[in-house]
Amino acid sequence: METPATLLKTNLAISIEAKQEFLKCSSQIEAFGLAAAVVAKRYKDGGRLYIAGNGGSAADAQHLAAEFVSKLAKDRAPLAAEALTVDSSVLTAIGNDYGYDQVFARQIAGKMTERDIFLGITTSGSSPNILKALAMCRKMGIPSIVFAGRDGGPARELADHCIIVPGKDTATIQEIHIVLAHSLCEYVEMCIFS
């Protein structure tokens, strides 16, 4: 059995290796740049960011929304952002009446406009409710981004911008998703409040 210190060192090495691998993925770095530019433009044009994920990715959606509304790197005015994962009454009503795969799509249909932008976070790229959300965005003409892992899954074809990060396990993928989220927020702050 590994000691806690050995396990930590192993996990740090795995995380560093995945991040170094991602640094070499020029197509994914470029995809992130294009997506970030679209988010900044949506804000400049009066739009909002809506974010969704499941499990740890739901927590990441809330984390990112908080960074936009409060602040990340500098004191500035709030930017409108909402995690579609936080209203238990809405989530349970939609889940009960329409099915769990509709919990984000139905909120998108009710809340979002063509000025807004959606970000789905899914380590597998296969979460049914994220796929339905992306399909709803396409139907409504709302641009969409997905942070994914592995091969991007079906989300890769449904999102306007798909950033696929390396990593063999969910934890490593989620760690890089947080780097993407913080970088996205920091870029938008620089663009809007330079």
Topology at a glance:
Elements: H1 4-23, H2 26-44, E1 49-53, H3 56-69, E2 81-83, H4 88-98, H5 105-111, E3 117-122, H6 128-140, E4 144-149, H7 155-158, E5 161-165, H8 170-192
Parallel strand pairs: 1-2, 1-3, 3-4, 4-5
Structure description:
This protein is α/β, with parallel strands linked by helices and 194 residues long. It has one domain: Rossmann fold (3-Layer(aba) Sandwich). The chain is built from 8 helices and 5 strands; from the N terminus they run H-H-E-H-E-H-H-E-H-E-H-E-H. It has a 5-stranded parallel β-sheet, sandwiched between helices. Helix 7 links the parallel strand 4 and strand 5 (161-165). Helix 1 crosses helix 8. The N and C termini lie far apart (51 Å).
In summary, what is this structure?
The chain has one domain (about 5-190): 3-Layer(aba) Sandwich (Rossmann fold), CATH 3.40.50.10490. Helices cover about 55% and strands about 15% of the residues. It is built from eight helices and five strands, in the order ααβαβααβαβαβα.
